[in-house]
Amino acid sequence: DDKDSRPSLARRATVDAIGKALLSRFPATSHSHNRELSRLIAAMQVPGGIDKLLKETEKIGSTESLDQRADAIHFARCLTGVSDGWTWAERQRFLKWFDVSRDWKGGHSYAGYVSNFLRDEVSELSDEETLRVVQNAAQFQRAATQIVQRVSDKVDAAFVPALAALLETDSPPVPRESTIAALGETGRAQAEAVLLRLYDER
Fold first, then answer.
1. How far is residue 25's CA from residue 35's CA, in Å, rounded to a whole number?
2. Using only C-alpha atoms, what is the Rg of the chain?
3. Which residues contact 162 (CB under 8 A, 6 or more apart)?
4. Residue 182 half-sphere exposure, CB side, CA atoms within 13 Å?
5. For the segment 118-138, what is each residue's pLDDT rounded down to a tens digit?
6. How many CA atoms lie within 13 A of 172 on its CB side?
7. Is 196 exposed, middle or buried (0-12, 13-18, 19+ CB in 10 A)?
8. What mean pLDDT, rounded, does the chain reach?
């Protein structure tokens, strides 16, 4: 058994060494090298790769440059391909990017691309993390909206007060009609009480 495991361990060590070498070269000065390095780092799930890809995405920020926006979208696509090694702090950084890029205009497929990235990212969140996003919806408006629009009767009871809190501001971070619909979807008595109060206040 020990002999059988040696080739796989050696292979793993080689892959890890390659990953570290790629990460040390990213970001590169060459645009094309940056694109290829980011693809490889994401595909190999290189430890430390998430933070570096996020830094490059955040560095671009709310730019007016279409070329830089294209780079940010590329890095975002790479990030959605990384399934392991995320921290909650890194998840938050990525979710905030979707609000930074909210009003970008690009090619015909831009909006669909980014919506798909957000959908994939939200699907990776745990129940506890989705609740945190809704509770802090002002920081993650697009992600919170998508979560609220997918609420069902299977959500934790803690979602009801979180949803109700979204309605208590003059400028709700999630569309009011989406939050009201989500409360109804929960099927919980506490949510029905909130909806009745809203009806009485009309």
1. 12
2. 21
3. 131, 134, 135
4. 27
5. 999 999 999 999 999 999 999
6. 18
7. exposed
8. 90
